[in-house]
Amino acid sequence: MLAQKDQESEIERAISFFNQFLGPNDCIYTRSIKSLAGQVRVAIMTEDSWLGLEKFKEDLSKRIDTSKFVVENWCKLLKLKGPIEKRKACRHPYKYCMILWDGTVVGCCIDFNGHLNMGNLNNESLYEIWTGERYNRFRRAMEKLDFRKYRLCESCEEWYKCI
Fold it and tell me: H/E/C letters for each residue in 12-50?
């Protein structure tokens, strides 16, 4: 979920609803809005912004079970990892895929518009898409940091999680 101003009641309802379906390794993950590879214009997040989300979780835990509610804190993460000097390969092509409303499988969690189309579940299985040539070509390009065919990846900041 993307945490936005005045969305607290929606987040609480979503957590309450989805908690019943979560297994031992599942979580409900939230973050404040980031630029999402330049697709969204946002103000720069500060440590205070992240602390607000953590405080929200703490207050929420007094009303509902938040043990599966994870708040992403980029400021803290980057402080722990230190300065980032060189772009790294992204882990997403090896760990995740996203399925859009129409069955389109895309190679990234920030690809809301299907730019990184890897296939469609209406035409082939998820296994065929995941192991297919399109996905493998995408993975090889990410390993080489070759973004010529994948412009969305060029300005992405999600790869920071991989270091």
Answer: HHHHHHHHHHCCCCCCEEEEECCCCCCCCCCCCCCHHHH
